Every structure is written in C-alpha cells, then in structure tokens.
Amino acid sequence: FLLERGEIEPAKEKFNRILEFEPDHAQAIFFLGEIAFHHGDLERALDMYNSALRYDDALAGPYYRLAQHALSQGKKKKTRAYLLSELRNSPENTELLTSIGSMFLSMACSVKTDQGTRVPPPGHSASSDLDHAVHCLLKAVDIDHAKLDTYYFLGVASATRGDYEDASEFFAHALELERDYAPALQGLVRVRLYQGHYAQASQYLDKSRAIAPSDPLGKRLAWEIQWHRIYAGIEVLGKQLASHLKRIQSRIPKRRDH
Predict the structure, then answer these.
(1) What predicted TM-score, i.e. pTM, was given to this entire model?
(2) With contact defined as beta carbons under 8 Å apart, do 71 and 107 qualify?
(3) For a disulfide at 62, which of 4, 28, 49, 115, Cβ 3.0-4.6 Å?
C-alpha cells in the first residue's frame, strides 16, 4: 500500500526491516527491486529480481520484469522463457496480461519470411508467440471488457494472422471505447489496404491524421495507400494486356508444316 501511495522511503524502510528478520522473504526482495527499477538503478533491480526468484521461483512479478529487460536487449529466447514462467503463475491482472500479450506480439511481428510477410509460418517460434499473445489478450478481455489497449492489440494480432474481419471488429471495439483513438484508426487503414478497399483506407487515414497530425506513421500509411493503388493498377493493366495478347494470338492462323 505504501508503494501504491507513492511513499517510497517508508516502503523501502519497511521491506528492509522485514529482511532483517526474514532474509529469504522473496516478496520484500522483489519490492525493493521495484523501488530500484523506478529509480533507474537497473543493475540493482535485476539483481533483486533474480534474488527473489532464488527464494521463490513461483513469485509473480520478477519474471515479467526480467522479460522486459531481455526484450529491450533483443534477446527473444530469454524473453520468451521469462514470459512463459510468468504465465505459469496464472496472472489475473488485466494490465499485466495485456502487457505480456503485447510483448509476445512484438516478437511475432518482427519476423520476416522469404515472401516478405510478417505472418510467421506454422512451426516457427514466432507462430507460438502469436498464439500466446492472443491467449493472454483474450484472457484480459474476459476479465475487463473495457480495456482499450487490449482490443487494439487483438486487432493487430488478428491482422497479423490474416483474419481481417476479426481485426476490424477488435479495432471497432477500441473505437467504441474511445472514438479518437488514432492507433485503432491506423490499424483499420492497414486492414482495408490488405482487403483492397483503398477508398475506405483513405477515409480512416484522414480521420487518424486529423487526430494526430504530427504522427510520422500517417505519412507512411499515405505512401502505402498510394503504392498499393499503383500496384493494383499495374496488376489490372498486366491482366488486360495478357488478355489482349491472347486474343491477338488466337486470330493468327496456325502455321502448317509441309
């Protein structure tokens, strides 16, 4: 309660006093790690998290913090292991589940296949990351139906899987909670692009840019819409030319061999 009220020094004193009598009190060690973390003393915080786990490897919290650090270092294998260990504690906190889901999602979406797509192939480690992300996010929604970020990340996960209808619904849910939520509008831009609905994509982009005019993603999405339209036009033209050539070839008399 002291930490929740922002009374850092009294909380620090309390936890140190606990450790004087119980040096192996894992939760007190973890909270001292949290205090160090919020003061920017990352090295001490990490040491406290690992120390807490040595005394209680089922303690909620330390694995999550260690996963955050591992992900910031680009160490996906460690991140994945820490997150799975945290999930074994069956967390019921919506914010924690949403954050864990978003971390799994960031690892899944960073994958590039030979075809240049972000959807990981079956059996790839990122495919399981995507499954874990969806599991965490759906569990978070079951606990709290009004969590904006949870619906947004579910939209991203669904779009990554190619489930564009589900993605549209999740982004729409986010906009029901906050109609000026630019990330959800930007998500809908990409979904409509993938579906080939360029006019709708432009409409959603205009709305998002009106809300966040300085967001650099707006310019990038505008370029993507233009590129998709050009590519679609070239594709149509190519099909027309192929059809025209086929008609011409059908009119040419077949040569007879003598």
Answers:
(1) 0.81
(2) yes
(3) 49
